[in-house]
Amino acid sequence: MIKKSVGDKVFDVSNLIFLGIMSIVTIFPIYYVVVVSFTDPIEYLQKSMVLFPENWSLASYEYLLSSGAFVQSLGVSTFLTVVGTACSLVITSSFAYALSRKKFKGRKFILLLVLFTILFNPGIIPNYLLVKELGLINSLWSVILVSLSNGWFVILMKGFYDSIPDTLVEAATIDGCNDLTAWIKIILPLSLPSIAAFGLFFAVQYWNQYFNALLYLNESSKWPIQVLLQNMLIDASSSSLGDVDPLLQPPPSETLKMAAVVIAIVPILMIYPFLQKHFAKGVMIGSIKE
Q1: Under a CB-based contact definition with an 8 Å cutoff, are residues 232 and 261 in contact?
Q2: Where does it primarily localize (predicted)?
């Protein structure tokens, strides 16, 4: 065992103190949001700051979930996440697989076009004009289609497909499979770690849709949870929630905001543990060559 010098011990202690402080700074805002959301409204009004409430309450959550606008925004975000993630995975994985096939004519030119989209973005106005010409303004599909794929994700997934031996596809071809059948029955089952990792990326992207939804969706009934949450954070009252059960007493606006933030982050936190075992493997596969 190597004996540490005094300087090494001082460095280790300083490092632990620094990391401890950074952990507290990082975790405390999340802790405070959760605590305030569960604080009894009367207790919150009586105290300037609540670190550990004496009386826990679900009043803010009951009030939010009784709002038709809030529940509808959750439904919109769920639709965007489920449908958008599925469409993005199909488009990205199939496109990346096509670019990984050496017999695909013109793949180098198309790959250059993909790289070009990573370096240069047309901007907001051309995108908006395109969506408008397609007649998708105020349609949920406008939010999905503008985020359907990503050049960087295509490149990463192509790297994963490049690591799969061509002999597998050749063997499937000999057995009578075409390219589509080989991709569905052989390649996709081998791609589950990569699919899980990129699926999580796309799910987070669609669940957190804010700017595109604000840009393309005019009706408040089609707003996802992030847009409604932004309106709640700006508005000091609960008027952005629309019609609420009149029998419920409105909690303080701050507890409502904190409860809305908790509801907005919980779905992704619930999905991540199921994909965690595939996450690191899916991201690293294809990033290096043996």
Answers
A1: no
A2: membrane
The pTM of the full predicted model, rounded to 2 decimals, is 0.82
95 vs 42: CA distance, rounded Å: 56
CB 50 within 8 A of CB 36: yes
* Per-residue model confidence (pLDDT) at position 69: 86
CB contact at 8 A, 290 and 162: no
For the chain, the structural domain boundaries read 62-284
Q: pLDDT digits over 169-205, tens only?
A: 778 788 777 878 888 888 888 888 788 888 888 998 9
Q: Is 151 exposed, middle or buried (0-12, 13-18, 19+ CB in 10 A)?
A: middle
H-helix segments, 38-150: 41-46, 59-65, 68-100, 107-119, 124-133, 140-145
Instruction: List 39's β-bridge partners, or say none.
Output: 56
Sequence letter at residue 58: L
Nearest to 136 by CA among 206, 59, 215, 220: 215
* Residue 288 clears pLDDT 60, i.e. is over it: no
- The CATH architecture of the domain made up of 62-284 is Orthogonal Bundle (1.10)
Q: CA nearest 201: which of 161, 153, 165, 159? A: 153
Pull the structure tokens for residue 103.
Answer: 């017999």
Provide the token pair at 20. Answer: 């401890």
Q: Are 227 and 73 in contact (CB under 8 A)?
A: yes
Count CB atoms within 10 A of the CB of residue 286. 21
